[in-house]
Write a structure and sequence with these properties.
InterPro entries: CB (IPR044068), DNA_brk_join_enz (IPR011010), Integrase-like_cat_sf (IPR013762), Integrase_recombinase_N (IPR010998), Phage_int_M (IPR053876), Phage_Integrase (IPR050808)
CATH topology of one domain: hpI Integrase, Chain A
Strand content: 5-15%
Keywords: DNA integration, DNA recombination, DNA-binding
Family: Belongs to the 'phage' integrase family.
Helix content: 40-55%
Protein name: Tyrosine-type recombinase/integrase family protein
Number of strands: 15
Strand order of the largest sheet: 13-12-14-15
Structural class: alpha+beta
Shape: elongated
Organism: Nonomuraea cypriaca
């Protein structure tokens, strides 16, 4: 029942909204002030009748834009930081440009449907368009409950929408790239060679053999390991606007994971390092804690790790450098020490390759193609060359001996698994367990998922199940190591080299290409 009051000589009416709060008006639908109390009460009764029929529109909503409402909606969210960050990304990247200027009451299902199709037409995945629509629907549904609009125009009834889109989305999910255990070891080895950090190899193996999420890997500390061969997954480390914060795993999925003994030993041997985050940061932001997996000075950013290490290791090229091949010096080690990249040769065009040099982190001295003979002599002596011998060498001879590529050692890495992501390692772990017939209860626990079925309510994980899983993971690792050893019995990555020690005679099979650019001085041969 609406109630009225007289204020400053004018009648005002208030009525209750579906959300429990109240709306008010001092003017009728024509913009004229109420002439008397009865007119004001009749207006309020009409508003409440519209609410009951589900056709109510807030009189003030005609002027309220989506941007105004969404900004207020976002400020009042009380969700996990990573969730609010995802909402903000969708609002800024896809939603505001299309709806920010529109009044809430002017947004229609047809406008929403055309916008969703335009997101896909712009080259984004169907799943991205659906996620953006879900965020839009959340905003508009709250606006509906608050009485700002009569219905949610972004809500899609069950069973509606093109069946083809749903099938495409299912196909894309099924086609997610995931590695075999052998491929995971090869890619992890390459990543460690590219980064110069042995712990990156262990991180890749840990991701593949446990299914940890990226944020959970970054949050591992020395206390995450217990003495019973288990890994405590109690935290995640996430970036928010350039700052790192600690939070509980996704959906509160804290858990303890069983590790095979060999993997537990690898992780335990890692020397923890303190990150460069400010120590005076306020909780929950990182305050410079010791973690197991760190970049040069700070935590790994997913995009940078993928661009610099994961994709070059998995694809054999630098995607952000025009797909320049990853070159390596394989004269003394396999799969070779990574070198600075250069563009591929153009058929029929004379090619002068750049000087052979290691990637920037390993480049000794400052000698290059413009260095004087004296500088090259000094560099050669630093490398242990005989002074009297070097003194008799010409500049060209010094260049050939110390800087120019060696035809018998220069190789380029072949692709192993294009389009792999770190999340693909999580898919791999689930797939390996499925293929090994591991019980569902243990798989759900290990992946940090929730199973609401009746069988899950009454089923429990046993020690026998855990033992079967550890046996499976060790068998997968042993077979992958045997195949890696058949390529070469040694590795420049010490922890992998130790694992390969003592395994029979190799049968060398190439996993790199020597079809490198030809030069006028020599033809590069295998």
């Amino acid at each position: 029942m609406p109630f009225t009051e007289e204020r400053n000589g004018r009648w005002r009416v208030r009525w209750r909204l579906p959300a429990g709060n109240y709306a008010s008006a001092t003017y009728d639908e024509y913009g004229a002030p109420f002439p008397d109390e009865e007119s004001a009460r009749a207006y309020g009764l009409n508003m409440e009748a519209d609410i009951r029929r589900g056709i109510y529109k807030d009189p003030r909503a005609e002027q309220l834009t989506f941007r105004e409402y969404a900004e207020d909606w976002y400020r009042n969210l009380d969700l996990e930081r990573s969730t609010t960050q995802s909402y903000r990304r969708m609002l800024r990247g896809h939603i505001m440009a299309a709806f920010g200027h529109l009044a809430l009451v002017n947004i229609t299902p047809d406008i929403v449907n055309r916008w969703e199709r335009s997101v896909v037409a712009a080259g984004y995945a169907i799943s991205t368009a659906r996620t953006a629509r879900a965020v839009l629907s959340s905003v508009l549904d709250d606006a509906r409950r608050a009485g700002r609009i009569a219905s949610n125009p972004a809500e899609k009834p069950r069973g509606k929408g093109r069946k083809a889109d749903r099938r495409i989305e299912v196909f894309e999910q099924a086609a997610k790239v995931w590695p075999s255990p052998f491929e995971a070891i090869l890619i992890g080895e390459r990543i460690a060679l590219l980064s110069g950090r042995e712990r990156d190899f262990v991180m890749v193996l840990l991701a593949a053999w446990t299914g940890l999420r990226w944020s959970e890997l970054l949050a591992l500390t020395p206390s995450s390991l217990d003495e019973r061969g288990r890994l405590k997954v109690h935290w995640k480390l996430y970036e928010d606007d350039g700052r790192w914060y600690w939070g509980r795993p996704k959906d509160g999925s804290m858990r303890i994971i069983d590790l095979p003994e060999w993997l537990w030993e690898m992780v335990r041997a890692i020397r923890p390092r303190r990150c460069g985050c400010p120590k005076d940061a306020a909780a929950p932001f990182c305050q410079g804690r010791e973690v197991l997996f760190l970049g040069e000075r700070t935590h790994h950013r997913r995009s940078a790790f993928s661009r610099l290490y994961l994709r070059p290791a998995a694809e054999g090229v630098y995607p952000t450098k025009g797909n320049a091949p990853v070159l390596a010096d394989a004269a003394t080690s396999w799969p070779g020490e990574p070198l600075a990249s250069w563009p591929a040769a153009v058929p029929g065009v004379a090619y002068e390759p750049p000087l052979l040099r290691r990637i920037a982190r390993q480049t000794p001295g400052q000698v290059n193609a413009r260095s004087q003979r004296a500088e090259l002599v000094a560099y050669a002596i630093e490398q242990g060359a005989d002074e009297q011998l070097v003194a008799r060498m010409s500049r060209e001879a010094l260049m050939d001996a110390y800087l120019r590529p060696r035809a018998d050692g220069l190789v380029s890495w072949l692709p192993i698994l294009p389009d792999l992501t770190m999340h693909g390692l999580r898919h791999a772990h689930q797939t390996w367990m499925d293929d090994g017939a591991i019980k569902t209860a243990l798989k759900v626990e290990r992946m940090g998922h929730t199973d609401y079925t009746i069988s899950a309510r009454y089923g429990h994980v046993t020690d026998t199940m855990r033992g079967e899983l550890l046996d499976l993971l060790t068998a997968l690792r042993d077979e992958a190591l045997r195949r890696r050893w058949e390529l070469s019995p040694r590795s420049s990555v010490r922890v992998l080299d130790d694992a390969l020690a003592g395994i029979g005679s190799p049968v060398v099979a190439p996993l790199f290409s020597q079809n490198s650019p030809k030069t006028q001085r020599a033809r590069l041969t295998g």
